[in-house]
Design a protein that fits this description.
Length: about 270
């Protein structure tokens, strides 16, 4: 019961964060979406041994979490939910790639461990960027941005419906589990023989609830596209949107083209040696 309610709360909490009056909320959703996409593409383009050149890109999610007043612990916990998938992908790298790459005294670090670190860092950066986008924009405004960049309305509508019907599914599951618990004489958990019937009932109840919601949408003029309203864009906001998009995109491309840690290290030794 707590798991179902917790999942519903976590989904709703992201939308609540997007309503906070922060500087990021005033930016155009299309600008934030395009910046995030560029960031993810740049992060994914780094080679498998580029651990140090990848580190400056941690600046982007760090600044946005501070600027958007986002709870760091909450986002990190949500990110860790998907961490097993990245661990599964990178777990065999140290076993398959034992080529010595770094040496610190008597400690030799193979290329497999370096590539393992690169995979995990890429995973953390991309997932955090996606979570920050949702937590500072909201799914409705992301739908507006997707339509603006040319995605078909059918695809955007399916994405928004999927997100909204997750709440319907969780609400029905919560009601069913509560009814089962009240009739189970205090037994913890669901007995295995009841799993099939509960899953079937959940599917039927969800279909029925979704049909009622769809009929209500038709009565309110739904014609195949979810209408969303984007905020006004004045001259000041256009300027801030341009600075945000241009500044971060330039930083991403600079970090990709130049090894910034190596450059800063060389500059440091020239200045203070």
């Amino acid at each position: 019961m707590k798991g179902i309610e917790g999942a519903s709360y976590n989904l709703r909490y992201l939308d609540e964060l997007a309503l906070q009056p922060t500087p990021l909320r005033g930016l155009d959703p299309t600008v934030k979406l395009v910046t995030t996409v560029v960031f993810i593409i740049v992060v994914a383009s780094f080679p498998r041994y580029a651990l140090l050149p990848l580190l400056p890109l941690t600046f982007y999610p760090t600044v946005l979490m501070a600027w958007g007043e986002l709870p760091v612990g909450y986002l990190v916990k949500r990110m860790l939910w998907a961490a097993p998938f990245a661990l599964f992908v990178a777990a065999f790298n140290p076993l398959l790639d034992r080529t010595p790459l770094l040496r610190w005294g008597s400690v030799v670090i193979s290329g497999g461990w370096v590539s393992f670190g690169v995979v995990m860092l890429k995973f953390a950066l991309t997932v955090l960027a996606a979570l920050i986008l949702i937590a500072t924009t909201g799914m409705n405004q992301i739908g507006v941005a997707l339509r603006r960049i040319g995605l078909p309305r059918e695809l955007v509508g399916q994405l928004l419906f999927l997100y909204r019907y997750l709440f319907v599914l969780l609400e029905e599951a919560t009601r069913m589990y509560r009814a089962y618990y009240l009739r189970a004489s205090g037994r913890q958990g669901v007995r295995f023989p009841a799993w099939g019937s509960l899953a079937g009932q959940l599917l039927l109840r969800t279909f029925d609830r979704a049909q009622r919601i769809y009929q209500a949408m038709l009565c309110r003029g739904y014609h195949g596209e979810i209408c969303q309203m984007a905020g006004p864009t004045g001259p000041e906001r256009r300027f801030s949107n341009g600075i945000f998009l241009g500044g971060w995109t330039g930083f991403f491309l600079l970090a990709r083209a130049v090894n910034l840690p190596q450059l800063l290290d060389a500059w440091w030794w020239r200045m203070f040696k």
